[in-house]
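testing teh design pipeline on a random one, pls ignore if ur not involved
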């Protein structure tokens, strides 16, 4: 007779408890998932803005005068007349000079180019001849200066300045 006095949980109460457990587990998963999606969205948005700014807005070119590009080197420097595009200010740029046996990164002080600005740069360089030069612009995206290597200005077979 004692076995009959034990009472089990009724099927209705068991069903309600199971549903409550599933709902609370679902709420935890949704809370975690929404935070994860928000973080990935913010990260992707920042990367997209950087890629768009670099690929579409950062534009650097060598000025031509009488069909001659104003980019050459002499015994002690690299001389370039550069023009920035109209869309974004170039905060700075890195210059890589590739010679027969070396790659030299040149440091340039005061290399900011405003929108649509044209400016002459004379960069100290004591290792001619230069086979190739790369100007890699850096722009400000969300207050951070980032280089845009895909928007690099590349010129081969530089000539001596006359």
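output:
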């Amino acid at each position: 007779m004692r076995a009959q006095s034990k009472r089990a949980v009724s099927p209705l109460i068991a069903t309600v408890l199971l549903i409550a457990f599933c709902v609370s587990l679902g709420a935890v998963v949704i809370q975690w998932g929404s935070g994860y999606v928000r973080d990935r969205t913010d990260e992707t948005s920042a990367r997209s803005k950087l890629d768009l700014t670099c690929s579409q807005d950062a534009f650097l070119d060598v000025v031509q005068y009488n069909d001659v590009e104003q980019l050459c080197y002499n015994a002690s420097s690299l001389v370039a007349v550069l023009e920035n595009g109209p869309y974004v200010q170039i905060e700075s740029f890195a210059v890589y000079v590739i010679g027969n046996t070396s790659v030299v990164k040149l440091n340039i002080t005061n290399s900011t180019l405003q929108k649509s600005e044209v400016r002459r740069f004379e960069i100290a360089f004591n290792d001619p001849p230069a086979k190739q030069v790369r100007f890699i612009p850096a722009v400000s995206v969300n207050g951070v200066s980032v280089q845009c290597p895909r928007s690099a200005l590349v010129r081969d077979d530089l000539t001596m300045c006359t």
